[in-house]
Design a protein that fits this description.
mainly alpha, 2 strands
């Protein structure tokens, strides 16, 4: 597995779009092998090929309870505990997202964060880069779900800014939607990450995108879903680390250069005494940027979209 991860990371660290796509497929295949079941009569050769191939329609998700006994899952989880093989701490996600020199068609592009070129025209390269960014976000979601301890990295501003910058109104709806889903994954059971999100004007970013007339209907629906999720009350994270109008306010892009981290998981500070917030406290914060938040809270109490009614 180390060899496959090494090869995938080498491809993903390239500025060539073809190599990046190959690396994404390889890593996707590895996660599929861990998370999806296949028929018992699959040959050994087919199993080896499935590691670098896209998931097939015949494969079904494994039961979560069975993963802990899966050797491939245990090996992947163990490798994610270290710096060298962790898919979040490695540089490839930022190289794809902050793609100043990405060359999917063999030439340099004039773009950053998936934006169109300065002259306002959409090129083929822009579209290809958008697809690479969406695929990268999908993989990040998978890694964060398989290895929850990696979520603690998003308590640090450099990692959280990576996602908030992608919620720029100039990005395509697909990137915005995938970013919101990835953001939810990073905040799951990690109140400290939510505090970082708030400190970095995450609420301003999300509500500004919601108010913008240029934001698509689909993205606005995702934003409402995110706000429902945000308004849920929090509990301290005690187990994640031990588990195997058109004129609206805008947040300034971080323009941070993404670099390798020298700290281990949880380096963003905090610990056992995490600062948690109630729904009422979050409602007060969100009310600074959005009207009628009380309607969202009331709807959350009545509909219980996440399976648990608010008190």
């Amino acid at each position: 597995m180390e060899s496959l991860l090494s090869l995938s990371f080498d491809y993903l660290s390239s500025f060539d779009g073809g190599k990046i796509r190959k690396g994404l497929r390889q890593l996707e295949g590895l996660l599929a092998q861990i998370c999806l079941s296949r028929s018992s009569n699959t040959s050994a050769a087919d199993k080896r090929r499935s590691v670098v191939a896209s998931p097939t329609k015949e494969q079904t998700p494994k039961q979560l309870a069975s993963l802990k006994d899966d050797p491939a899952f245990r090996e992947f989880f163990k490798l994610q505990e270290g710096f060298e093989w962790n898919g979040i701490q490695s540089e490839w996600p930022s190289k794809i997202i902050y793609a100043n020199e990405l060359t999917p068609s063999g030439y340099s592009t004039d773009r950053m964060l998936g934006k169109t070129a300065r002259e306002g025209k959409q090129s083929d390269a822009d579209g290809q880069n958008d697809l690479l960014i969406v695929a990268t976000l999908d993989l990040l979601q998978g890694i964060l779900l398989i290895h929850p301890p990696s979520r603690s990295l998003f308590a640090r501003e450099i990692y959280m800014n990576l996602l908030l910058d992608l919620l720029d109104p100039l990005n395509c709806p697909a990137i915005q939607s995938s970013t919101l889903l990835t953001l939810v994954t990073t905040l799951l059971s990690h109140p400290l990450n939510t505090r970082t999100f708030e400190t970095l004007d995450g609420l301003l970013t999300v509500t500004s995108l919601f108010k913008s007339r240029s934001t698509s209907r689909e993205v606005k629906m995702k934003l409402v879903e995110f706000l429902y999720f945000y308004l849920m009350p929090e509990t301290p994270n005690s187990s994640a680390l031990s588990a195997p109008s058109t004129a609206v306010l805008q947040r300034s892009p971080s323009k941070h250069a993404f670099s390798r981290s020298v700290n281990s998981f949880g380096g963003g500070g905090g610990g056992e005494d995490e600062d948690t917030k109630t729904t009422e406290e979050k409602q007060s914060l969100l009310g600074k940027y959005l009207n009628n938040v009380e309607d969202l809270v009331e709807d959350l109490r009545e509909s219980a979209p996440f399976g648990a009614a608010l008190a």
